[in-house]
Specification:
With about 220 residues, the protein is an alpha+beta fold. The protein is built from seven helices and nine strands, in the order ααββββαβαααββββα. The chain starts with a helix and ends with a helix.
């Protein structure tokens, strides 16, 4: 038990260290240029400090400058470390290019094919096992999370994760020969805004949220 706790503390320490590295990486960057690249809104208080405003999923967030600490605008509470990291990766990676509207699989992301089997296991396959042929349950869960209806497959929804990061989740109904399947897709310029590891986290997050929305109705 002690070893498990120690390992957990070591991992958390490394994670916090990485978050601080990301903050240091962008602390000297021009905030107005960062806002243009990330598609966020920046307000300056004229004292060398300010804040970026944007949405993470459907929640409004403010990110302080120059210390880059993210808070929920409704509660002023600090976001969890995993969300802090996701936002910081976004701000360090974003280059300002617009999304194309062309969708690619996780395997087509940079180095994604090496982790694709694992990714599908805890996202698409997990969802297809839970929803089976219940298309309406999938639709209801996606709508509960404010997904935008999209015309692909038998049912699909687009989710805006960050201002220039979207994902598409597609449901295909099965038949007597093939089971239903679910796949998460990303914009073809996805790696202009986040590293592939971050998309693995995003895929896991939307899977968990969809299943939670589905379970709430049962």
């Amino acid at each position: 038990m002690t070893n498990i706790t120690e390992n957990s503390n070591i991992k958390e320490s490394r994670f916090i260290h990485r978050i601080n590295e990301l903050r240091n990486c962008i602390s000297s960057h021009d905030p107005f240029i960062l806002a243009a690249k990330t598609g966020t809104t920046y307000s300056d208080n004229k004292n060398g400090q300010g804040e970026f405003l944007f949405q993470l999923w459907e929640n409004k967030v403010k990110l302080s400058y120059p210390d880059f600490i993210a808070q929920d605008t409704a509660t002023n509470g600090l976001l969890p470390s995993i969300d802090q990291a996701l936002i910081l990766y976004y701000f360090t990676t974003a280059d300002g290019l617009s999304e194309t509207g062309d969708w690619i699989s996780f395997s087509e992301l940079l180095d994604g094919r090496f982790y694709n089997q694992a990714f599908q296991g805890y996202t698409g396959k997990k969802l297809s096992v839970e929803f089976k042929n219940n298309k309406q349950a999938f639709i209801s869960a996606a709508q509960k999370l404010s997904g935008e209806v999209f015309s692909l497959g038998d049912a699909s929804f687009k989710f805006k994760v960050l201002p220039r990061v979207s994902l598409l989740i597609v449901f295909w109904l099965g038949d007597e020969d093939f089971p239903s399947s679910v796949q998460i897709l990303f914009d073809s310029r996805a790696n202009h805004y986040l590293p592939t590891d971050a998309y693995a986290i995003i895929g896991s997050t939307i899977t968990r949220r969809l299943l939670a929305a589905y379970c709430c109705n049962h």
